[in-house]
Amino acid sequence: MHANPAATMPRVGFGAMMSTMTEDVWRDLTRGDAAAFRAVFEEHHKAVYNFAFRHTASWAVAEDATQACFTTVWRRAREGSLPDLPHGSARAWLCGVARNECRNLSRGQQRQLRVVGRIDQQPRQKRSNVDDWLAHEDAMRRINEVLGRIPDAQREVIEMVAWAGLGMAETAAALKVPVGTVKSRLARARKTLATSEVAHLLGQEA
Length: 206
What we know:
Helix content: 55-70%
Structural class: mainly alpha
Radius of gyration: 17 Å
Shape: globular
Largest sheet: none
Mean pLDDT: 77
Low-confidence stretches: 1-7, 12-19, 109-128
Distance between the termini: 53 Å
Order of helices and strands: HHHHHHHH
Number of strands: 0
Strand content: under 5%
């Protein structure tokens, strides 16, 4: 039986987040450095979690996807197969990994990964918060239904730019396409959805 790669993942906490992650930290992570993994997790786990929620419209699935994402990161770090930091942005690459995990989970490959602790410190099951959690899921589900009208390549750009807050160059690097392609996909998506209820989420033409 193969050993579970999550079994030896470094424990991470929820202390003060770093303001900037240097390329040296990512370089150390590519060599399997546990302290570097903690730094990357602290820097990016909330952004990845929020991205995953917007993609899935489910807090529970977003939590599983985020934990699966960082499990993948640590496994690849130990294998020495992490890529170089793409254009100074780990967040773009991590969101791409999270998007794949969201798709896996949505296809029914549910994973019970609890290796990096709770994503959010605040209790999710307090009675006073349940209605808010459900309302957010319902709103996000409606948004995703609208985004389902456009091709996946265009939706992917919207998720990177609007959901993850990435710039055009970062998005292009993450998707491995020219910046011009990112801009054209975003423009086409804006045109298609100009009269929809999500038009305000897509920003203005550059």
